[in-house]
Each structure stands twice: as C-alpha cells, then as structure tokens.
Design goal:
With 86 residues, the chain is mainly alpha-helical. The protein has 3 helices and 2 strands, in the order αββαα.
C-alpha cells in the first residue's frame, strides 16, 4: 500500500491552491456585479407559481433561486436537522 509522504501532500496542496486562485480570478470579472434585490420582481399567481421579472439573465436566475428557496425552506430545514441528528 502506498502512503503519501509530506512532499507529495505539499505539492498537492500547492496545486489545489493555484487552481482555486485561477478559478476565482476567472469567475470575478467586471460583469459579475452583485445583484440588488430591487432589480428582481417575484410575483406569484393564484396557484402559487412564481413569475420572476428582471433586466438581466443573472438577476432572473437569482430571483428563481430565491423563489425556490422560499418554496423549499421547510424541506431544507428538515434535511439540516436530519443531518445534525435532531
């Protein structure tokens, strides 16, 4: 059985740190500005279906995620409590 020595672990951690830094730099551009809640409008019809309206597609995706989180809050809480063991 092969056990990694300290040099291998240092190299692996340096590589993973470099990859993380490169991915973070690639993801943070001028176009990815924080979305303000005022930019997104969520309207629910009589059946409770959310209709998200916004100017950009990023804002629409943020609103859709927010509406989904509102709908699934109880199941997320039950999953969290189940994982903790309560």
């Amino acid at each position: 059985m092969w056990y990694p020595n300290l040099t291998h672990l240092r190299n692996l951690s340096a590589i993973s740190l470099a990859i993380t830094a490169l991915m973070t730099a690639a993801c943070t551009t001028e176009a990815s500005k924080p979305i303000k809640p005022k930019e997104v409008t969520i309207h629910r019809d009589e059946y409770g279906v959310p209709h998200v309206v916004a100017k950009t597609s990023d804002a629409v995706m943020f609103g859709a995620g927010y509406a989904l989180a509102q709908d699934r809050l109880a199941s997320m809480e039950l999953s969290r409590r189940s994982a903790v063991g309560r």
